[in-house]
Write a structure and sequence with these properties.
This is Glutamate decarboxylase. It catalyses: L-glutamate + H(+) = 4-aminobutanoate + CO2. It comes from Acidipropionibacterium virtanenii. By secondary structure, the protein is an alpha/beta fold. It folds into three domains: about 15-60, no CATH class; about 80-335, Aspartate Aminotransferase, domain 2 (3-Layer(aba) Sandwich); about 340-450, Aspartate Aminotransferase, domain 1 (Alpha-Beta Complex). The protein is built from eleven helices and 15 strands. It has helices spanning about 5, 45-55, 75-85, 95-115, 130-150, 170-175, 225-240, 255-260, 325-365, 395-405, 435-450, and strands at about 20, 30-35, 125, 160-165, 180-185, 205-215, 245-250, 270-280, 290-295, 305-310, 315, 370, 380-385, 410, 420-425. It has a seven-stranded mixed beta sheet, sandwiched between helices. A four-stranded antiparallel beta sheet has the order 12-13-15-14. Helix 7 (about 225-240) links the parallel strand 6 (about 205-215) and strand 7 (about 245-250). About 40% of the residues are buried.
Length: about 475
Amino acid sequence: MSLHRISGQQHHENPSPVELNPVFVRPGEASALPRMRIPHDESLPETAYQIVHDEAMLDGNARLNLATFVGTWMEDDANRLYLEAADKNMIDKDEYPRTAEIENRCVTMLADLWHAPDPEHTAGTSTIGSSEACMLAGLALKRRWSHARRAAGKPTDRPNLVMSSAVQVCWEKFCNYWEVEMRQVPVSMEHKVLDGHDLADYVDENTIGVVAIMGVTYTGMYEPVARIAEALDRIQAETGLDVRIHVDGASGAMIAPFIQPDLEWDFRIERVVSINTSGHKYGLVYPGLGWIVWRTAECLPEDLVFRVSYLGGDMPTFALNFSRPGAQVLLQYYLFMRLGFAGYRRVQQTCSDVATHLATEIGAVPAFELWNDGSDIPVFAWRMREGHTENWDLHHLGDRLRMKGWLVPAYPMPADLEDLTVQRVVVRNGFSRDLADAFLADLREEVDFLDSLDAPMPRTGHSKAFHH
């Protein structure tokens, strides 16, 4: 399957060429270039720049994108550092030993932030993003389980992993790629997240672990890791099964330590063996950067770690990627140095305050009913109030808001709640109270317009919103 088909873009049999504005065409240059094939001749750098620039400027305004979790802004000093480090290959630790050292410092800082028993002697690594980090966490869980099963003389052919039905798609990928049965505990109106209910119905001797989410992608809610651990304690007392937890903290692992420090979700809970986060989400770095840290070095099976000689150096590595950028690692360290704990707390609290303000105001709109209030990570969702109208739905509102530049996804909830559609707002660093109030004004205006309709809007033609 070709990549353009995977991405959902249309395939044209005879695509038109890229026409150059005569102002930018230099003597001797072609005035049109093929769109889908490498051009035969060279172009001047200014011409190539203008072609790419003009196409990229048609993307949306990142400041108005309330759909994405990914960081879209950094300070000028960070941008300068990014450009200076663009050529660094993270995997080449022999040529870039200081970058490798900085990666280790960041791992230790995160281990300390998440209350690892011995932060300086744990295991962890940077990754391209949280998805790769989740893959590594799942592989470690599976390998630990396999070792224990073989030591007991038991088969290892039917591993399963237990999680909420509201997990991010990377966990579906992990289970598919590494042939692990995916056991999903459905969310419901009574149990909006995985909270330990009925967990005994899903866990058995083939369970490699349980995934707990600190910031569900659909809604931003925390799953109560302590309650999940207590449920697993009861299961162990009754059955002898010792099942461990991986915390998918893609967003919440960089929120909770700063603004909810008393919430126990991390390595303070003994069953938690690994935690991942996205440096490029609430870690505040440009994409793509993730982190994975294990409770202790022993929690990462040694036979998963490769020790290879590369360009004259001995390099232990556990990763799905080999060559990858080192610049984002330096940017993460820059932010740790730049903001410190107090600075991160201020940034995250500001995001949280804006989110709860928005949630309160949107919850007061008669058309809506809040699913959650943004008090976990700075993300919240709402649904249409039952019986409000038959003339429009949240997809129509999303279309109207997009006309004003705002990207606010509307999408169905996961299995067993797929008939319920919600809209979600993600508040990121840089989305100020003033921008929030401007968004509220546009939202109210569009709701008033839709409420004034005396006939139903068309029900077809809505594009699928990307909500992961």
